[in-house]
Design goal:
- By secondary structure, the protein is an alpha/beta fold.
- It has 16 helices and 17 strands.
- Strand 6 and strand 7 form a beta hairpin.
- Helix 2 runs parallel beside helix 7, helix 3 packs across helix 4 and helix 11 runs parallel beside helix 16.
- The longest helix is centred in the last third of the chain and has 20 residues.
- The radius of gyration is 27 Å and the shape is elongated.
Length: 415
């Protein structure tokens, strides 16, 4: 089955809203083994919506749409679907009854504006909405299908998982698709792919790359007659990749780095402490977001000024005077002392220039040093980051977690 995603909303075209719905649906379609070749965004215009649907159905089996199902005048997706199928909009008895019950249960008096949501294209099947008041739409004709869900992410996600996914599974026949993400740190994309050139040339399973801050992801995908066959093929490919580049493998799956760091600390029975300057507490915030963080995160010191670096982290004045607070030596002292002071197994530090002012001739804005001290090693890595102030700070926190995870996973690849 081939699908296309159509996102409806003038606010999307104007950049006022980020289209997270399309990303969610793309992942879900991949999990189901449905091929996705195009994603389209169209404004709140009946004729253009109808045209986009017709174009999608001319080359695909399924058009999956979000947005424009509410009660306001600019919610015209249902009308656009009717135009595409050449039918009328009619009050659907089942949808109207459900909507009246939903409004009554919430103490809301029905109005023509709200009841507009029960106007569906003739022949449509309503899709229950467990959260909101706008039912979804399921339309079929000549083996082609259009599925329309609300634009509110919480409603759309619940409806897709609870209502749409089971129906699509009933329709799907043939091969299943399984995907696995292998995550690497400490190696560049080109160096990694050079070592896997022959493997990456295969047609099934396939291997694709995605560059993330501090990481390179390999996306392994396999189609097979059964889940067992697909997993077996992925396991074999996974093993081959680990044999060649396993020294840089730091994780499997798409969990945030802070989750992987906590899992690695738990596996070793270790604790961690942070000393942050340029990141201003971002690392600590991400680590404490993980449930159970108190078992492995001892705490952190935000040392933003020279005085705090000296008084709370014992960075020698001689280091600051000779090398500067943005230096390898300062980062090393910060990581080592916070580890000792907070009695942790691992100490990680950040210092750098986030801009827009500051920097030095040999350390321009974007220069960041990340220090790490563990029972096994002491090291500092230097990075030259790009972007605005917040982008540099976010990237530095991400890299600090990646450096930490890579150190924690040394020797664990392939186990």
């Amino acid at each position: 089955m081939v699908a296309e995603i159509i996102s409806v909303g003038t606010e999307l075209l104007l950049g006022q809203v980020t289209d997270t719905n399309a990303s969610f649906l793309s992942r879900r379609l991949a999990d189901l083994g449905i091929d996705l070749y195009r994603r389209t965004t169209v404004g709140d215009n009946v004729q253009r919506i109808g045209q986009v649907i017709q174009e999608a159905l001319s080359r695909s089996d399924l058009a999956l749409m979000t947005g424009g199902l509410g009660p306001t005048p600019d919610d015209v997706t249902a009308e656009g679907v009717a135009v595409a199928f050449g039918v009328r909009l009619v009050f659907h008895p089942q949808a109207e009854e459900w909507l009246l019950q939903r409004l009554s249960s919430r103490g809301i008096r029905p109005s023509p504006t709200l009841l507009k949501q029960a106007l569906l294209p003739e022949g449509a099947i309503p899709i229950p909405n467990p959260i909101g008041t706008a039912p979804g739409i399921w339309m079929e004709k000549d083996g082609k299908r259009v599925i329309v869900l609300p634009g509110v992410p919480s409603e759309m996600e619940a409806m897709f998982d609870d209502e749409v996914t089971p129906r699509l599974k009933d329709l799907l026949k043939g091969d299943v698709l399984r995907v696995r993400v292998l995550r690497f740190s400490g190696v560049g994309e080109s160096a990694l792919t050079d070592r896997l050139a022959d493997i990456m040339g295969g047609s099934n399973p396939t291997v694709g790359t995605l560059v993330k801050p501090g990481e390179v992801w390999l996306r392994l995908a396999c189609k097979a007659p059964s889940e067992t066959d697909a997993e077996a093929a992925l396991n074999e490919l996974h093993k081959k990749i680990v044999e060649r580049v396993g020294q840089w493998l730091v994780g499997v799956g798409e969990d945030p780095l802070e989750v992987l760091v906590m899992e690695a600390l738990k596996g070793k029975g270790w604790t961690i402490a942070t000393a942050e300057s340029v990141t201003g507490g971002l690392i600590g915030a991400r680590l404490t977001f993980v449930p159970g963080a108190s078992q492995h995160y001892r705490g952190g010191i935000i040392a933003y000024t020279e005085g705090v670096k000296m008084s709370l982290l014992s960075v020698p004045w001689s280091v600051i005077a000779e090398k500067g607070v943005v230096s390898e030596e300062c980062a090393r002292h910060m990581a080592g002392f916070v580890r000792t002071r907070l009695r942790a197994d691992v100490g990680v530090s950040t210092t750098g220039y986030a801009g827009p002012t500051g920097g030095e001739e040999d350390k321009p804005i974007g220069t960041v040093f990340i220090g790490l001290v563990t029972p096994n090693e002491t090291k500092v890595e230097r990075y030259q980051l790009r972007g605005n102030r917040q982008q540099i700070r976010d990237a530095a926190a991400q890299l600090a977690l990646a450096v930490t995870l890579r150190s924690l996973k040394v020797g664990a690849a392939g186990k």
